[in-house]
Write a structure and sequence with these properties.
InterPro entries: NTF2-like_dom_sf (IPR032710), SnoaL-like (IPR037401). This protein is of the alpha+beta class and 146 residues long. Helices cover 28% and strands 39% of the residues. The protein contains three helices and six strands. Strands 1, 2, 3, 4, 5 and 6 form a six-stranded mixed beta sheet that branches. A hairpin with a 2-residue loop joins strand 3 and strand 4. The longest helix is centred in the N-terminal third of the chain and has 22 residues. It is globular and about 50 Å long.
């Protein structure tokens, strides 16, 4: 791996760390900062795809409003590959929050994000997050953990 590639991998890892902090602070604008205007995002919820920044901003806000106290989002085993101006990051998303009774709610989902470097800045151009489903019922498998 070249020094430039190593630096780009670090940049994308640091971008994710800032993203995790923005989510924990429920900061919608900071969460939107690395998202490209031409994003196509496959979220956990309908519709099948989000293509407008305003729609993604609304979904982000809705998600933050649903979360309880002590919200955290991490990708413990984040993988990143960079080739020139294209970066791909993937891993299992761990989202946790504390309920009013003190118990912790944890969900795991799958996530893949694609970034393009534009004018020296990494921007997410595609995201795909999903929960596995139970074929017998069609229900999302929310209780799975690695």
């Amino acid at each position: 791996m070249t020094t430039e590639t190593e630096a780009s991998v670090r940049e994308l890892i640091e971008l994710h760390e800032r993203w995790f902090a923005a989510a924990e602070n429920k900061d919608v604008e900071a969460s939107m900062e690395p998202i490209s205007a031409d994003i196509i995002s496959y979220e956990h919820v309908s519709p099948l795809q989000f293509t407008a920044l305003d729609d993604i901003r609304k979904e982000c806000q809705r998600g933050f409003e649903q979360e309880l106290d002590d919200f955290t989002w991490t990708v413990p085993d984040l993988r990143v590959i960079v080739r020139e101006d294209l970066g791909v990051a993937w891993g299992l998303n761990r989202m946790a929050s504390r309920r009013p009774d003190g118990t912790e709610r944890v969900t795991w989902s799958r996530g893949t994000r694609i970034f393009r470097k534009v004018d020296g800045k990494w921007l997410m151009v595609h995201q795909h997050v999903s929960f596995p489903f139970e074929p017998e019922t069609g229900a999302a498998a929310l209780a799975l953990a690695p």
